[in-house]
Every structure is written in C-alpha cells, then in structure tokens.
Amino acid sequence: MILEIPIEQIMPDPNQPRKTFDQAKIDSLGQSIKQVGLIQPILVRPADANGVHLIVAGERRYRAHLSACIGVIRCCIYYGENKAETLAVQLIENLDREDMNPVDTAKGFQSLLEAGWQIETVAERTGLSPSTIQSKLNLLNLDQRIQKQVAAGQLFESVAIALSRLSKNGQFLALRRIKSKSYAEARPVIDAVLCQEQQVDLFAAPESKRDANKLVRAYTMAMLSLVAFCKKVYGDDYRVLAGRLDDGRLGKRIDEIDLAIKGLKRIKHELEVYQHAKKLRRVA
Predict the structure, then answer these.
(1) Nearest alpha carbon to residue 198 among 278, 283, 279, 277
(2) Which pLDDT tens digit goes with each residue over 140-152?
(3) Residues 94 and 185 in one domain
(4) Across residues 114-127, what is the average pLDDT?
(5) Whose CA, among 80, 211, 249, 271, lies 20 to 30 Å from 277?
C-alpha cells in the first residue's frame, strides 16, 4: 500500500548506514521531484502510535523533499521487525542507487556482522564476493583521521585498503610518501613499510658474493638483450615478426609474452620495494 504521509511525520533512521550526503545532489533531486513528482516511493516503518514513521530506504528522497519544501511524501509501509534485515535493506538500497563512501559501507557491513550475520550471508545479499566484503571491512583498521580522508574522497579506496595492513604509525609513515598516488605507485611504498614493521631484512648479505655477481651479470645481459629486441621490432617491424611467427602457435607466443610481462612486473615491484625501503632506512 502506498500512502502520502506528511513530511513532519517521517524521521531518518539513526542506524542508517549512510552517514554523509551530497547536498548539491540532494537539492538537484528536490527540484526534479518538484517538477515531475516522486517516481518511486520511499520505504518506511511505523515507529510509534502517533503516526511517526522511520525511513528504511529512501533518505536521499526524503532530504530532497525537505530541500524543495514539499509537504507530503509518498511512502510504502515496511513491517519487518528484524534489525539486521532492515539494515540489509538500507545498505543494499544505498549501494544500488548511489555509491556510499567506502567507510560508511564498511561500517554498514560491520553492523550486519555484529547482528549475527556471516560474511558469506552479507556477500550473498549484496552481490559482492566475500573477499570484497573483507577488504572493505579492513578499512576500519585505519586510523580515524585516515578514514575521514577516505570518506571525503581524498584517498583512493584501493590505496586505503593496502594501508590498512600497517600499524597506525606505519599508516602515517606510508601516507606521507604516497599522497595522491595511484595504487600502482603506492603499493611498493606500503610494502616497504610493511617489511620494515615485520622486520624483514631486505639488506641481508648474500650467501655467496660470487653467485650474487653472477646473477647481476645475467640480469644485465638479459635486460640489454630485451631492450635491444624491443627496439628492433618497434614500429612496423612487429607486423613482419607476427607474420613469420604465424605457424599455428601464435597463442603460445602470446602466452610467452604474457609470462614475460608478469615476470618483469614482479621484478619491477620488488626493486621498487627495495628502493623505498632503502629511503626509509636512511630516514630512520
């Protein structure tokens, strides 16, 4: 049943997982509702015998009504009594309509776990994988000041999740070096700080100096050959190479290149971690 209820009889739910709203978007939505009406009613549940209702889903639309000074709002009545189920409805509604900031999302997931749900249940209801749920929950390991930066969009969520592996001191140590950096740029710094915290010795002397020198020479020769080869086939020459290699095993050739790229990326990452660890060591 859809009812039109006076706006003063509608109250936001204090347990609503979304805590922050974009006022400019709220104002824009309010003007749209004023012009064309509310397309989808909000979902509310009875709160007391005096006709007051709490919002289950649709607080943005409610706020838009207030912004546009609209006196009544169309509502569907929800009679669910289970607190966790109500929270799940609110969380899913917000995830579907407009992304909440990552910290509010993580706190919503945490509330469901505290209500007795398992991560697998949360994942099933939200359509996210259990690993994604856990990654977002890890944001709550961040210092409160860093959480505020994530919520404000000042720090990439992927970078924040990586930071959450560190201690509070480590988080700020890494953050000073990765401000505004992408995940790819930030990860070696974070890994270097993590190695420092775990007391992983990246500067240990090799077991054999001769073996180490042999490995360095092999790396140098291989890299020189690789760079020379890339320069040789750069431009239109790669078309000639592709044609000559077209012996029915092109898929294998492509897999070989993919393997080489993965290996080079791993080497690059490890060298970057070592480089940042060396800088951290000098600072210390």
Answers:
(1) 277
(2) 999 999 999 999 9
(3) yes
(4) 87
(5) 211
97 has pLDDT over 70: no
The mean of the pLDDT values for the chain is 87
pLDDT digits (tens, 9 = 90+) for 133-186: 999 999 999 999 999 999 998 999 999 999 999 999 999 999 999 977 889 999
Q: Which residues are catalytic?
A: 59
The pLDDT score that the predictor gives to residue 98 is 59
Domain count, the chain: 3
Residue 51 domain boundaries: 2-83
For residue 78, the domain's CATH number is 3.90.1530.10
The verdict on 161 and 99 lying in the same domain is: yes
Q: Based on the domain organization, do 133 and 60 belong to the same domain?
A: no
Give the integer Cα–Cα distance in Å for 42 and 64: 12
